[in-house]
Every structure is written in C-alpha cells, then in structure tokens.
Amino acid sequence: MNTTEILEKIDSFIRDEAGVTTGVNKKEELRRLIYEILLVRGITLDGLKEDADLRSFLSRKLEGGRRFLALKEVLVRLRYPVAVTSENDFKLYLPRLRLPSGPVTHGLSHPFRPHRIFVQKEVKNLPFTERIVGRFPDVPVTSFGRLKDLVPDRSRLLTDMGKRDLYIVNENTDIIKPCPCTTGALGCNYHILNLGFGCPCDCSYCYLQHYSNFPGILLPANLDNFFSAADNLLGESAGRFVRIGTGEFFDSLALDDITGYSTALVEFFRDRKVRFEFKTKTANIGNLLGIADAPANIVVSWSLNPAHIVGSEELYTASLDERLAAAATLSTRGWRVGFHFDPVIYYREWEKDYFAVIDDLAASVKGKIAWISVGTLRFYRKLKPIVEQRFPSDKYFYGEFLLDPADNKMRYPRIIRTHVYRKMLEKLRSALPGVPVYLCMEEPSVWKEVFGSIPSVREVESSFLPHGPGFEQ
Ligand code: SF4
C-alpha cells in the first residue's frame, strides 16, 4: 500500500469509525498521530485497531470536542509511551502532514563540483577568486553587485538546496560572534568565525535547511577582514583564551581543497591565545597535511555516528572509516584531534552501535584526544516538515520528540537524554580514559544528573585549554 492509500484509510477511519467531527486542524493532528504510530511501530491500521484502549474508545458514546480529546489522548499514549510516563507536562508539535508527491532526488556531486560560480564585483580580482574560478575553467561565471539582493530559488529548497552553486563574496557583517548555544543551556564560551556559509554535504538534521537565506554556498574572499575581526576579539578578551571555530554554518574542511582556508587560518591563529577548531565530516585534510608543524592550539575534530547513520543521514560526507582514518593520520603527525558524538540518535540498538564506534575510535586514534562532546538529536520544529519532504523515508525524526516552547526546539524526553549521556560517559571513560567529555547544548540540571555537579562556564572552558587533560605534552 502506498502512502496516499494509507492516508486515505486513516482519513476514513477518523471520519467513519472514530466519528470525529471537529475542525480540519484537529483532524490533521489525529491524522499525523496515527500515521506516525503506524510508521514507528511498523503496524497496519487494522493492527492499531487491536489496541485495547482504542477499542474501548470506539465503544464510548462521546460527541464533538470530547470525542476528539478522548481519541487524541489514546493516540498520544501510543505515540509517546516514554513521555507519558516520565514527563509531568509536555508539549507536542503536530503540524499538518505534507509528504512529497513523487520520488525525491538530491542530485549533488561528490566530490563537489560547482554548477555555477557567482562573483561579487568587489572581489573579482582578488587572488582567492581568481584561483577558484581558474580551477573550474568550464563552469559558467556570473558577476553580481550586492549580497543582500541575492534571492534563494525556492523551487530548489526541497531538492539540492542550491548547494551546487558557489558565491564568492565580500563579507563584512557578522564575521565573528559568540555561539548562540541555546536558551537555558550551559555554554562553553565558543565563538563562530563565519568564514563560509552553506555546505556541499547534505545531512537530514542540518538546520541550514531552514536557516539559510542564501541561494548557494557563500565563500568570502576577503580573508583580511576576518583576521582583523579575530584580532579585535582577541584584543577585547584581555589575554583570556578564546575558543573559535568555523564549523557552525559550514563544514570547516568540506571545500578546503578549493578554498585553502585552513592553511591561512592555521598560520593566523598559530601561537595565539586561541583554541581554534576545525569541525568536519569529511576526510579533506590535504592542506593540513602540507603544514609541517602542527600548532598545539589548533584542534581538528570530527562528528561521528554509526556507519549506517552516516550512510542514511549524512549524505555526501566521508564514511565513518574515512573520518577515523583521517583523524588517525593527523594525530600521528602531531595534530590535536577532537570528536563530536552529535547528534546521537536514539533508537532500539543505539547503544550497541555507538559503543562500537567508540571502540573503533579508541582502536584507530592513538594520540591525545583534545575533547569529545555528546549531544542528542534536537532540531527546531520548523525542520520537521522540511525533513518529511526532503528525506521522506527517514524514521529517526519520528522518535519521541517533544516541543520545548522556550526555544521551539524538539528534544527527546529528559529521561532518554540523561540515559544516553550516562551510558556514553561511562563507555567513553572506560575506552578513552582522561579525555574531557562535555555535553552540547544541555541545561545545567541535565549536566548535574549526568556528571553529579554543575561546572561553571570557566571550568568547562578550562578543559579546552592547551594545558587541559587532552593537551599534556
Ligand atoms: S556537514 Fe554540517 S553544515 Fe554540512 S550539511 Fe551536514 S550538518 Fe549541515
């Protein structure tokens, strides 16, 4: 049975058998709940009707709004079994179900090759621009004036997201800023250097899918402005170590063979009071390997997930083995390396799969590890309808995600998050003793449950410094 037929059966059940006569929005909530229950439990509508609570509801004589609420309560219990037994009060996000009408193709190239290059007039003659344009002599090049006039082609947002086009720009705003972290979370004094925006990889959970207003991948050519902004930040920080990274709006190394950013960044940040981090899901380390002496204050870090999740959720990235091999290579050349188990996706066999990745990591990387972060899958609620359109067969977004109205993010129930963190911490401590581990974007009370106490931001920061546990010489 195809999706359209399943949805027709669900509609007819709500209308004819459940007898719900309330408005369209309420019916849409029921429709989504039933659709998700069938998907998550792998059952048919007839199988669902075997449920004792649902049978009992069907026999009750309720009318109008009371009938809707009674059915919704049964369905919520079936859809969110952990939350109903562990959370006092929780909010759901049940948007109208919109599934793609046909097959979805993303159609990007791997390794990356642009389809078009757009060059802002001010940077046309910079060596950076000439190098990139010269590298793709048969790719059409168009010049343009103002960055703010760029308009995304909405028709491409559900397919390739404009990831085929490069825009070489003169970037002067928002060059460096504190990591926004998330409301109520314990931060770690991280700054984001916006050197690049957009990404040739395509991860199902990537927030750029709803965040980006640009029609392609932006590559600033005016590196001098970035270095001036970094100088200013360092001047204002009065000798305190600052953490800076480029991996928030851009995979730090995904296009490094084209941009060469890493070489310039390493030389600029070398020997400064900065802990600079390259974050990547690729094995694009050629430029770093060309640098003779690895600076102690620079960390190259990889996001890790089980191989099957890399395959299904992190399209156009390096495989898990390739990431670990790249990390091992840099580590043996004296580079500091770090790892991010972020996002950890919770599913039936999650523990076995993630523990196997930790064992693989411990077996591959023999040098010092600067840090490891752990964060469970979370996303802004507006991402869910986009994922349903762009990754329609993805089941991981049908976990028990609850809406946090404080920041409009969807998260697993707290009991699941703390369980995952405790298990990961235990395993990491036994497989990789002495490596600093921190939680990404979690509230202080969760830190307390997992670590036994709430560290201050200074304490979190201190574990990232060159004299921290991962950096002893
Ligand atoms: S690698 Fe990072 S920036 Fe690129 S698509 Fe994946 S999550 Fe987004």
Description:
This protein has 19 helices and 17 strands. By secondary structure, the chain is α/β, with parallel strands linked by helices. The protein is globular. The strands form 4 sheets. An 8-stranded mixed β-sheet has the order 4-5-8-9-10-12-13-17. Bound molecules: iron/sulfur cluster. Iron/sulfur cluster is lined by residues 199, 201-203, 206, 208, 251, 281.
Strands, helices and their partners?
Blueprint: H1 3-17, H2 24-41, H3 45-48, H4 52-59, H5 64-79, H6 81-86, E1 116-120, H7 127-135, E2 141-144, E3 165-169, E4 176-178, E5 190-193, E6 202-203, H8 208-211, E7 217-220, H9 223-236, E8 242-245, H10 256-259, H11 261-269, E9 274-280, H12 286-289, E10 298-303, H13 307-313, E11 314-315, H14 320-332, E12 336-344, H15 350-364, E13 369-376, E14 379-380, H16 383-390, E15 402-404, E16 409-411, H17 414-431, E17 437-439, H18 444-451, H19 457-462
Parallel strand pairs: 1-2, 1-3, 3-7, 5-8, 8-9, 9-10, 10-12, 12-13, 13-17
Antiparallel strand pairs: 4-5, 6-11, 14-16, 15-16
Helix pairs in contact: 1-2, 2-5, 14-15, 15-17, 17-18
The chain binds iron/sulfur cluster.
